[in-house]
Amino acid sequence: MPDESDLPPDSAQFLDAALAAAVTATAHLNGGDVARYIPPLAEVNPEQFAIAICATDGVVHEVGDSDVLFSLQSASKPFAYGAALAKFGRDSILNRVGVEPTGRSFDSLVRLETGTHRPHNPLINVGAIAISGMLCHVESESPIDEMLGMLGAMAGRPLQIDATTFLSERDTGHLNRAIAYLLRHFGVIDVSVTDALDLYFQQCSIEVSCRELSVMAATLANGGRNPVTGVQVFSPEVVRDVLAVMSVCGLYDGAGTFFYQVGLPAKSGVSGAIFAVVPGRMGLAAWSPRLDPRGNPLRASVAIHELAKTLDLHTFSPRPVPAAPVALSAAIVRPNEVALPEEATLRLWATEVAGPHVLEVCLVGADGQFVAMTDGAAFPMQATANAFAYALALERSGAACLEQLVGVEPSGNPFHEIFLDRASHRPHNALGNAGAISVCSLVPGVTAADRIAEQLRRLAQLAGVPRLEVDALVLHAEREGGDRNRAIASMLRAHAVLDDADAALDLYLHQCSIRVTTHQLARMAAVLAAGGLDPDSGERLVRTDVVRQVLSVMYTCGLHDESGRFAFDVGVPAKSGISGAIVAVVPGRMGIAVYSPGVNDKATSIVGRAMMVRLADEMSLSVFLTPPDAGSE
Predict the structure, then answer these.
(1) CA dist 152 to 57, 443, 517, Å?
(2) What's the rounded Cα separation, in Å, for the pair 427 and 406?
(3) C-alpha 352, offset from chain centre
(4) What tens digit of pLDDT does each residue of 533-542 get?
(5) Residue 43 CB burial class (10 angstroms; 0-12, 13-18, ≥19)
(6) Gap between the Cα atoms of 341 and 473, Å rounded
(7) Cα separation values, 419 from 221, 242, 404, 489, Å
(8) What pTM was computed for the model?
(9) Do the beta carbons of residue 259 and residue 247 sit within 8 Å?
(10) Is the pLDDT of residue 5 over 60?
(11) Cβ atoms of residues 31 and 340 within 8 Å
(12) What is the C-alpha separation between 577 and 599, in angstroms, rounded?
């Protein structure tokens, strides 16, 4: 690799060197096997390998077997979802298919049988088949011709179906047929099972090369405009929604780990394909037919990981504070480096959202500026503290230690779930109750008083105040009503996650009872927004690698079993608490805290969540909203 100081990170020489380095770094990976349950895929040469990068200027860099054709398989799902969003709109799609991760494999039926009977998301088989059922409703050309036209526009050339793969999938796809019948039973699809499955199997059987897949990814990176042909395929808003779902659900029960490590929206397929999107910059694609146990391409996935690391592509790698955010409404002013709304504008938005309900809002810029609508009332942090406690634990103990203790996967379960990861017996992530209790076991101190004093000291430093305090009445109520958390702590002890369950639980209850104001909470978030720097003094409070890790888990897991929907509607890392607080981080721009006491069945503030949606819409907060002219000169 050339010295990073010698070449711009997006220069042709640097990208070519990064590709060569990824080939070398993955050359030893010869494990896994091809997808033998689809006969044509079982016959593919497993040693083939390719990587391609398409920048938003349309220039492609490639290495290996980049012109060999393969079927898209599940890599087609995000594009089909985008077509459905463009055709039917967000609300119609959300009525049929959700946007939540399941914590289960791509072909699982389990989640469909519970709750609303909607598929959890469009990137698992059950959701993708539901999308195919909707796309069967076309007025002009046939559904598959429309699909081929859209995918061809993404790739920059006409595409074709591999008939052998299609017929094989149609003849052997019995589990998918079971899924389709169940969808029809629950009224999710209203066309024939045959029509829905034919479109789904044909979509999966469309052939592309690694080079073409990188162009398709770059089209998403370019706000929906193909960087080679200049054709606008999707609107930036459709792209934003597609990328939000890819980031949380794209790699099934490994999506959280991939986003934590790589930090890019991505999607894989059992043909060995995987692609990832770097908004505003480039699309990445890789292909290797050998799969890991989760059905993801083994060598190709690691190659994407290597490229993201070499090129520093992680969505939440701290960047300099932007000189001017994109696409802000006319009501935004820019007092220094970070745009914040005027106080009167913020008050108008809040009043329209809250009506007669209590609502406090504060925005603290990464440059220390702030605007607020608040009377300064304090409230218990509850689970909003979990994100900052996780950051402090990562600072003290390191990622390797934390990864032994807790996972980074969304579970699809409520915040107070009793279940642990089935394989590792660890909590799924650090932001649910089980994970947060586990993280509390790492706080140093000889006595309980020492440990809570240390936690209060560090949290106060992030909040920019001399001290924070525990609300004694809230702590008493937590202890009196804490039997479910005691059950969680006891289970953690039973699985040897904790040595001293009582001590960890007691610190957790203290942590939940810490009182803050919206300004203090937003200021804590602003530290993360500023890449770990104190917004006022510029002193480093949190390491940059810790910021990246915490924001990744907040994005995928911060609102528990509605994390996917929050990412879809708001698009920034966040954490909610049952007190009615929500804290959010807009990287490079600001920290946000809202407080309104009424919560929904997900333990999220109803009015606070609505306010976050309003702020996201008015201020273009989503990390995946690419400007319409991205990549243009």
Answers:
(1) 19, 54, 52
(2) 5
(3) 29
(4) 999 999 999 9
(5) exposed
(6) 36
(7) 37, 30, 17, 12
(8) 0.93
(9) yes
(10) no
(11) no
(12) 9
